[in-house]
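Tip: read the tokens left to right.
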């Protein structure tokens, strides 16, 4: 059946009667052609299309955009918009996920209904900053190193490229350091921080980054953890060790630190009970000291 003028004729023995009417056959519209797809952000993709040349009387009244994630599981298409005016030839699709590839089609509609969808085309959203790494923890400590581990972020939002491990010291004001770890593909990361000070408290945090067009997209830092390195024996002896009698049964003992980091000093005292008996009594007295040079003093009294 085709569009055109159709004539109906009624005949009798006496005369003929005819009537001509125009008939318009309206079919479903042809699909437009998707000409360009490109990401505009980590959550949006722009679609542009070229309308198809339609048959007479099949004017397009609107367009429908459908999309789905590109996946091995072959999910069903979802309609993004089904009321795009026929005069529009471009549409921004928003609300997508970062670093994900989507497949799109566009369909024309008219008063008869929807036509066939266009050929499928795909585009990928930009990467975004990942979420924070999780479960940062201490595995092992020594006087000069700390062995840490953590898991990669729950939401990658792209191809993870690097980590930043930030450390700060509660004891040393100029010990704020950031270390970068690159090209790590494992979901579980471990790292040994070396060159630390003995018996020193440190705070560690870690964050991850993706890279999009040369721009580093850093996520948030993980929750901080606090850890103290182990105690180490001093490398030098105290200087200028002196003993002074300040009362009959009281001695003043003093010594000087040379600036070598010492976090705890232990002084050992011995006393002869008599030259004839040569009996010696010894004990230890412990002192907490601050790092850096200075003079430490203690008073020794008789324990009788």
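Filled-in amino acids:
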């Amino acid at each position: 059946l085709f569009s055109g003028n159709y004539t109906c004729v009624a005949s009798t023995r006496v005369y003929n009667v005819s009537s001509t009417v125009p008939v318009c056959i309206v079919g479903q519209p042809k699909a437009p052609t998707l000409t360009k797809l490109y990401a505009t952000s980590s959550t949006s993709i722009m679609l542009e299309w070229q309308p198809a040349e339609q048959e007479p009387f099949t004017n397009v009244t609107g367009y429908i955009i459908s999309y789905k994630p590109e996946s091995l599981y072959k999910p069903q298409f979802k309609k993004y918009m089904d009321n795009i005016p026929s005069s529009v030839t471009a549409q921004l699709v928003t609300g997508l996920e970062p670093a994900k590839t989507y497949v799109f089609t566009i369909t024309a509609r008219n008063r008869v209904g929807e036509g066939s969808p266009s050929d499928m085309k795909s585009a990928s959203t930009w990467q975004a900053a990942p979420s924070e790494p999780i479960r940062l923890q201490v595995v092992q400590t020594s006087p000069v190193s700390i062995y840490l581990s953590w898991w990669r972020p729950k939401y990658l939002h792209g191809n993870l490229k690097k980590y930043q491990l930030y450390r700060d010291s509660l004891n040393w004001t100029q010990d704020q350091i950031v270390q970068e770890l690159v090209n790590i593909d494992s979901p579980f990361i471990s790292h040994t921080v070396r060159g630390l000070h003995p018996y020193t408290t440190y705070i560690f945090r870690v964050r991850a980054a993706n890279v999009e067009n040369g721009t580093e997209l850093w996520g948030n830092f993980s929750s901080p953890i606090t850890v103290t390195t182990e105690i180490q024996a001093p490398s030098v002896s105290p200087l200028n060790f002196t003993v002074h009698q300040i009362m009959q049964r009281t001695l003043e003992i003093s010594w000087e630190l040379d600036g070598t980091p010492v976090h705890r000093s232990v002084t050992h005292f011995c006393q002869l009970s008599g030259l004839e008996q040569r009996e010696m009594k010894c004990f230890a007295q412990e002192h907490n000291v601050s790092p850096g040079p200075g003079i430490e003093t203690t008073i020794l009294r008789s324990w009788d």
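The chain has a mean pLDDT of 83. The two ends are 127 Å apart (CA to CA).
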